[in-house]
Amino acid sequence: MKTQRLHLKAPDNWINDPNGFIYYQGYYHLFYQYFPYEPRWGTMHWGHAVSRDLVTWEHRGIALYPSTYADRNGCFSGSAIEEDGKLYLAYTGVRYEAVNPKDPHTCLNEQFESTQLMISSEDGFHFDNEAGKTVIIPPVTDKKIGDRTHTRDPKIWRGKDAWYLILGSTVEEKYGEILFYRSEDLKTWSYVDKAWKGEEYGWMWECPDLFRTEGGAVLMVSPMGLLKNEEKEKNHAVCFPVEFEEGTCRIEIPDGYQFTDYGMDLYAPQTTLDAEGRRVMEAWIRMPQPSADGWIGMFCSPRVVERRDSHIYFHMHPNIRAAYSKEIPDTSLAADDGYMAVFDLEDGEQADIGGFLITRENGIVRTDRSAVYPAFEGAHLVSETPRVTDGCRIEVLADDNLVEVYINDGEYVISNAVYGLGRKVTAGNGKGVRLYTMKDR
Hints:
This protein has about 450 residues and is mostly beta strands. Helix content is about 0%, strand content about 50%.
């Protein structure tokens, strides 16, 4: 099986959303949307990777594939939970009502329906795709609740008195919403309530995730059509500090939100609890074209999510920082897994990470990947954070296809896909940069 370190990348062909992220029986399991036939979007399967430490990952092949009436055109995004020693996966199955005659992996004019299914495993590695799937929530037919086509991406958690499930949906493709369901036994699910914000928050809310931190509850969603500018990507992941009452599923969502990542390549984040009980996030990094090796799609490094008052932080996971602790004089000595660069950036200064530029001006941190990214119409080349006022400590994780810029220990993060990153690193006005590679195992 293929092993990778730091950034989990497609084993081949195409991957997108992380699914079923969970710590179970001594392994971190990360499933993902996978089209195993070409480096493009198509009929979705679930690929599977595992890790002991969130640093080194091993691909374990296909876990789920289309095999029933409800999921015959794809096993789409979902989540994982543990109960009585078993691993349960909940996911969205898609059935096309009109297949594209020119491409059997797509449908015509969004003519499809979505069903929520569940499958279990005794060990987290073996799944009975032929006889082990059950429907837990049929297609939504009541338009007052949700949409038959665009209702998807179940995220399940155990509450104080029952199991709860959140789904993303839309109201007449005008604005996104979330739906809440409740179950006593993981088999019978009852609709409880819904919530939304309005048309300016996107027409569909994908990949919802609701969880508690010590500082309060956080809602993550990936609204489609959120941005109205001329750039290619209109769909982006955002997060809200919220107030949530579990029993009634009533939620208060403020008007203001943060981008989950200010690089604008990150999408479909999903969280779980790590072995120490920290809330940890993984997410898909979008790529406009395949890598030099022919694969497309990868995931960010794992991040610890923390809410402080109304601000949400995304810290570099301590396992990653510990792994990248072998200091080196220059990047020529870095392992193939990339390197970490650490420096302070004063106002008016710039860092150059192999052609990827990071500047700080008037308290705003800005990145420019123009020199290491393919030019195409609508390409997002320059990213920036809100104003940063209390110092500017920068930690960069970089490999050939992804640069992650952690600012002030996750006050903000910018993650950008890149192609052909160079090896020369400089920062500031001649001040030193501390460089680290993966320590010997």
